[in-house]
Amino acid sequence: MDLSIIISAVIALAAGLMVGWLATKARADQIRADLIEERRELDY
């Protein structure tokens, strides 16, 4: 197996994990924002 193939696979895996983590974080932030908004509506 060629070293460049291994390096490319590792970079692709790392990029995939990063994109997945960012997507999950963005979704969590959106859910948190929605909850804060609902709480504000209940307070008034």
UniProtKB/TrEMBL annotation:
The chain crosses the membrane at residues 6-23. Keywords: Membrane, Transmembrane, Transmembrane helix. This is DNA recombination protein RmuC. It comes from Klebsiella pneumoniae. The lineage of its organism: Bacteria, Pseudomonadati, Pseudomonadota, Gammaproteobacteria, Enterobacterales.
